[in-house]
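Sanity check. The docking grid for beta-L-arabinofuranose depends on where the pocket ends up, so I'm generating a full predicted complex first rather than guessing from homology. Inputs follow.
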Amino acid sequence: MKKIVKPNTPLMEHMYTADPSAHVFEGKIYIYPSHDLDHDGPSTHEGEHYSMEDYHVLSIDDFESPCVDHGESLHVKDVPWAKKQMWAPDAAYKNNKYYLFFPAKDTNDIFRIGVATSSKPAGPFIPEKDYIPGSFSIDPAVLVDDDDKAFMYFGGLWGGQLEKWRTGVYLPDGEGPADLEPALGPMAAELSEDMLTFKAKPQEILIVDEEGNPILAGDESRRYFEGPWVHKYKGIYYLSYSTGTTHTIAYAMSKNPQGPFVYKGTILTPVIGWTTHHSIVQFEDKWYLFYHDCSLSNGVDHKRCVKYTELKYNEDGTIQTIDPYKG
Ligand code: FUB
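Predicted complex below; grid placement will be based on this.
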C-alpha cells in the first residue's frame, strides 16, 4: 500500500533530505531539497560534514498522496565549475523553463551560485558552464513576483562564507560585525530576463525592529543567519530565515521585495538537530511550511529529513508560531 505523507513526519525515509524549497508547478507540489550523504566523518564549524554531491526532486500530488522521488536531477560531476558541497537549492519557473539554482564550492573552495535548466519540473537539469557572475555564499531562494520580475535572495554565515564578502571581495579571514554593530542581512539581486545573470550587483537587505533600528549582530535570537525565503501574502512580502545559533525560523515583513523588512517573530521553534531551513508555499486555499529535522537519524546533524506542516496567519497578517512536536 502507498504511504501517504502526514504532517510532521519524514516525506522520505530511503534517503536523507534537507533544506526543502517547495513550489506548486503543474498543479502539484514539487520539493527541491538537499540530499544529505550517509557518512560518519567529522563535523566542522565550516560545515564540511554537509558534503552533498547531488540533488533529487520530490513531488506530491496533494496532501492525500505518497511522496515521489524523481531520482537524481543533477550531480556535481556534471557541473563544470563546481567541486563539492551541493548545498540548499531552489527552483523557479519562467520563460516556459524550470530553473534550478544551487550553491557549491568552486575549485578555490569559494561558495558560488549556479543555475541549471530543464523543460520539466523534476529535471534532469542541464547546468550552465560557469556560476552566475558576481554570485557568492549559499542558500539561493528565488521569488518570481506577480509582475514577472525575479529576485534571488541568498547568503549564510560561518560555513556559508557571507562574512568573508563584507568588502565586496572574498577575504579568507574576513569576520562578521561586532555584537553591537548591525547584523549582516541576506543579499538580494534582481535576475535578468533569461534568469542566468544578475541585473545589478547584489545588495544587502536590512532587517529592522519595530522602531526602525537595525537588528544587531549580537541579537542572536532575531538576527539573520542563513536560509532566506521570500513569499507574498495579501500584497506584503515576508522574509523568513534561520537564526542559526538559536535554531529558530524567524520572519520579517515589508511592502517592498528589497526591504527594509521589519522583524515580526518566530515561525518555527527549534527542531532536533543544529540546522533549521524551510520554505513556505500556498497549495489550494491553505499555506504550508516545509522544514527539516534530524529525527530520522536520531539527531545526527548532517542526516536530516524533510517534513511539512500547515502554516496559519493571524487576522493582522502575522504568522502563528509552530512547535512541530506539540499535538
Ligand atoms: O544543507 C547545508 C546547509 O545547512 C544549508 O545550506 C544551510 O541552510 C543549512 O541547512
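Relevant for the grid: The pocket of beta-L-arabinofuranose is lined by residues 18-19, 34, 50, 87-88, 138-139, 156, 226-227, 275, 277 (CB under 6 Å).
Also worth noting: The chain is about 0% helix and 40% strand.
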